[in-house]
Amino acid sequence: MMNATCNYPGHIKKNCQSQIEICRRCGGDRKNVSDHKECVIKCHHCMSDDHQSTDYKCPRIAAYRKQLLMELKKRAELQQRDFREIRENMNPKQCFLRNAET
């Protein structure tokens, strides 16, 4: 889960505390169009210039993903049910049959 307003993981736009929409490429205010015709890539999480703030190369994003995976491994009983539900919802044949019933 990556917030599109501030590009920080772990919360949604509705709960975001950011006062501005932060550009994932340079960290500037996205509403300032003149600065974003050609913005320079610089992650605003770790200040690296080799990736955007939403990239998996970012140590902050990598740490968040690692934490999520650890939590999933602790809750193995939920994994099976959730993955089965996702597979069923993503199955084109099942989607077609559900839509045909309505």
What does this structure look like?
It is elongated and about 50 Å long. The chain has helices spanning 59-74, 76-90, 92-101. The protein is an all-alpha fold. The protein contains 3 helices and no strands.
Assembly classification: single chain
Count of DSSP H/I helices: 3
Largest sheet report: none
Integer-rounded radius of gyration: 19 Å
Low-confidence stretches: none
Distance between the first and last residues' Cα = 31 Å
What's the number of extended β-strand segments?
A: 0
Helix content: 40-55%
Helix/strand order, N-terminal first: HHH
Keywords: Coiled coil
Coiled coil: 61-89
TL;DR?
Keywords: Coiled coil. The protein has three helices and no strands.
Features:
102 residues; mainly alpha; 3 helices; 0% strand
Per-chain topology:
Layout: H1 59-74, H2 76-90, H3 92-101
